[in-house]
Amino acid sequence: MKTTKKAAVNFIFITLLLDVIGFGIIIPVLPQLLVELKGISVNEASTYGGYLLFAFAAAQFLFSPLMGNLSDQFGRRPIILLSLFGMGVDYIIMAFAPTYIWLMVGRILAGVAGASFTTGSAYIADVSTDEDRSKNFGMIGAAFGIGFIVGPLLGGVLGSFGTRVPFFAAAGLSILNVLYGYFILPESLSKENRRKFDWKRANPIGSLKQIISYKQIKILLLAFFFLHLGSHAVQSNWTYFTIFKFGWSEMLIGISLAFVGALVGFVQAVLAQKTADKFGINKSIYYGFALYAIGMFLFAFASSTWMMFLFLIPYSLGGIAMPNLQAFLVTQVPDNEQGELQGGLTSLVSVTTIFGPLIMTGIFYYFTSENAPFQFAGSAFFLGGIFMLISFMITYFLLRDERNEVGTTEADRL
Q: Rounded to whole angstroms, how far apart are CA atoms 138 and 134?
């Protein structure tokens, strides 16, 4: 049984890895594609990039709970395959897009189908035990990290042959991933742990109402929200900031994202479980949030390229938080509601992706424009640091009591 579960984790790791590589391929060239389609400067293009993320997130916010609930009834495998196919169609649309509107259409479709990480997280919850839960959720982070080593580097190289070439490569990877999942990926949710689909719970409001009914989750969701909102200072702003302030090329952007990927992969695959073993899951969560905040504030005041690479280290070390936070959250809900939990969490992330890119790219554009009261290109990172500091304070005051540690019994708390 242990060998079978390990094989299942490896299967989902490869599936998510190919998915992230496909996504990472397009990152270095997307700003240039927006510049070409709109005929605008790169700092102005950042706002249009924010609108694309807004469209993706809005669609994901509406449909992730639906996908999560469907996976609780029909299993994880078919929903993952549907998601991967939808992403492939999105990349093809973006590769041929003659106007900005077509890019928007592709992103909306991707948001509707984009449940690979939602259902993948539920898959990990299905096959994990208390002893290896942090490690297994760390594998999701490792897939993200390694994917961001290979994807952006490959995108930077392919981008030299044409702005749209990376989109065709991403579409090919998605098709390969569908074939891999169809023939290799096993189902993780046994029939006895499935539950009937319920429309009342298969929407963002119903899903969130259900998961906040669990007492320990309610406050943590606020920290989860501010963490992801703050993270858009990096996710939505990195390429525009580094091109504007340091004149980075597509290749250097790809190298920087590959460096992030290497750090994140190591932190989440190796250090997340080790910190949980040494300090406990609770301390690992708020230590990670503190490191995220430190990294953000350092980015805000970086004045040269080498500083950006150096400051990625404390920021990436903050990655010990998420696998342990996921490990904590999944212990608070029954086995037959893990898909719903992950769908609800993805909806919450989607809310931050609706507003985060608009806030972060908007503040970056404002403080780099002629109308700004003063020039501060690092303004988005500074705001992101404030949001992550709030997350640290919430988790610190909630989880510092060792009686709330995962694995303690009701008798231990009395």
A: 6
Residue 140 and residue 267 in contact, taking contact as beta carbons nearer than 8 Å: no
Token couple for 113: 């189908």
User: Token pair of 275, please?
Assistant: 């910190």
d(C-alpha 233, C-alpha 202), whole Å: 30
DSSP string, 95-159: HH-SSHHHHHHHHHHHHHH--HHHHHHHHHHHH--TTTHHHHHHHHHHHHHHHHHHHHHHHHHHH
Tokens 């580094």: give the residue: 242
Residue 113, CB-side half-sphere exposure with 13 Å CA sphere: 20
Q: Are 272 and 323 in contact (CB under 8 A)?
A: yes
Mean pLDDT in consecutive groups of 10 residues from the start of the chain, 414 residues: 63 77 76 86 80 80 79 85 85 88 87 73 80 77 77 81 86 85 82 80 71 74 91 88 89 83 82 89 93 96 95 94 85 73 74 83 90 91 96 91 51 35
Tokens, residue 188: 């993780």
Look up the pTM and report it: 0.70
- Check the CA dihedral 30-347-294-361 and report its sign: positive
Distance CA 346, CA 340 (A): 10
Max Cα separation, the chain?
65
Query: Which 8-state DSSP code applies to residue 187?
Result: P
249: left (phi over 0), alpha (psi -120 to 50) or beta: beta
In whole angstroms, what separates CA 350 from the centre of its chain? 10
**Residue whose C-alpha is closest to residue 238's, from 293, 302, 287, 285:** 302
pLDDT for the residue 298: 97
